[in-house]
Write a structure and sequence with these properties.
The chain is mainly α. It has helices spanning 14-37, 46-92, 99-104, 131-137. α1 (14-37) runs antiparallel to α2 (46-92). The longest helix is centred in the middle third of the chain and has 47 residues, at 46-92.
Length: 142
């Protein structure tokens, strides 16, 4: 196959590609502005051209750094999701602790049913009250 999909490296988000492109354009602009600063053209102000070159270079650094951060956030997000999936899978199937064991068991098989709570029969409370005291309180004696 010509194109291989690596599941460990997700697609680069569109915003990261846009920021990377803007960073490259700013870097090209910084180079052009720097060359203009050292040129002998009369219409070029050297101070403004050099300040523009430095500013464009700093802007390029910011754009490229933001693009790289967004790209790495996508990678971290994918790894965290897979980690939580593995943790949840190991909770459902406790005997599949090792990754080699997970390949042997089918993830689509239903989880083992947990036994229900064991409840004991409810015992009635019997309170012994002397007959004299029960009559005084108004209860009927059996």
């Amino acid at each position: 196959m010509v194109f291989d999909v690596d599941p460990d490296k997700p697609d680069i988000p569109a915003l990261a590609r846009i920021l990377s492109g803007m960073g490259i354009l700013c870097l090209i602009g910084a180079a052009i502005s720097g060359m203009l600063a050292f040129s002998t053209y009369t219409w070029v102000n050297e101070t403004y051209a050099m300040a523009g070159a430095v500013g464009a270079f700093l802007l390029a650094l910011i754009f490229v750094a933001q693009a790289k951060i967004i790209e790495l956030l996508a990678v971290v997000s994918a790894r965290v999701k897979s980690r939580f999936a593995i943790d949840n899978l190991s909770r459902v199937m406790p005997n599949a602790a090792a990754p080699s064991m997970m390949a042997a068991t089918s993830p689509l098989s239903p989880p083992a049913l947990k036994p229900g709570l064991i409840t004991q029969p409810v015992k009635e409370r019997v309170i012994h009250v002397p007959d004299d005291q029960a009559r005084q309180q108004g209860f009927k004696v059996r």
